Amino acid sequence: MKKFMTVLLALAMVLSLAACGGGNNAGSQDGAAFTTVEEGKLHMSTNAAFPPYEMTTDDGGFEGIDVEVAEAIAKKLGLELVVDDMGFDAALTAVQTGQTDIAMAGITVTDDRLEVMDFSDSYATGVQVVIVKEDSPAVQSIDDLASAAMIGTQKATTGYIYCSAPVEEGGYGEDHVTAFDTGALAVMALVNGQVDAVVIDNEPAKAYVAENPGLKILDTEFAVEDYAIGFAKGNTALKDAVNAAMAELKADGTFQKIVDKYITAE
Ligand code: ARG
What is the DSSP letter of 14? Predict the structure, then answer.
């Protein structure tokens, strides 16, 4: 009896997958049906200035871990991925207001964000690190951040949120933090001597340090976080379908293959 049920369930899943592959605007894996912003498409809002998770290619396309994983998820759902590139804060707002279906941008799950949006199961660990000039007089360890005249961050990111918090709450106060539109601009400001340090996620930090001689990442980690895919609050049907697709990609090795393509193990 149990076996029969399993077969039935599997059959139901195959049928529902086939149904959404047929250009239907509603898809379903084994739960309730979901709809997407545009028929047959999965719109992903992102900020494609965050290597190796999302970046632009020379021919105007997009690449990176998030982009390829989202493509694989879309395929499983019988949809075509459309990348909507915008500012990081806009990428979060777009999914919250239903302009896009998912937001994928190395987004850290935080309590504040959980109040305004839903998140998938976490798919990666992010670490906030500190980049300084190799010969930085101002900041040589994480403890020196408190005395740094100016810390650079990307606007609306957790790096900005933590650093700009009042001193009583463990931050350094707004006056000591500058928010740039992208992490790359924050790093450029460090190179130019406009800020003393940049607080940013570890993988983009590695990419920026590799591109800019004379920079280094401090050994001590500033914060450890979970990355997840963002949804509009209450969009449980799509969230469940994406979680199921992601679980399959993890189980069959596709997810790890994509990660390995962009991140070489140390
Ligand atoms: N993990 C950080 C956060 O969620 C930074 C993410 C920035 N992502 C990007 N694509 N620019 O706030």
Answer: H
* Ligand 1 atom showing the smallest separation from residue 108 Cα: 4
CA distance linking residue 65 with residue 49, whole number of Å = 12
Q: Is 126 in the pocket of ligand 1 (CB under 6 A)?
A: yes
Distance between CA atoms of residues 223 and 153, nearest Å: 14
Nearest-5° angle of CA 114, CA 48, CA 170? 45
Residue 30 has a pLDDT of 55
| Nearest CA among 45, 40, 47, 42 for reference residue 96 | 45
**Mean pLDDT to the nearest integer, 132-161:** 92
Q: Which residue has the tokens 């084994």?
A: 30
Burial of residue 263 (number of CB atoms within 10 Å: 0-12, 13-18, 19+): middle
| Average pLDDT estimate for 108-133 | 98
Determine the length of the chain.
Answer: 266
d(CA 86, CA 197): 25
**196 Cβ closer than 6 Å to some ligand 1 atom:** no
How many Å separate Cα 92 from the centre of its chain?
A: 10
Domains, in order of start, for the chain: 25-123+228-262 (3.40.190.10), 126-225 (3.40.190.10)
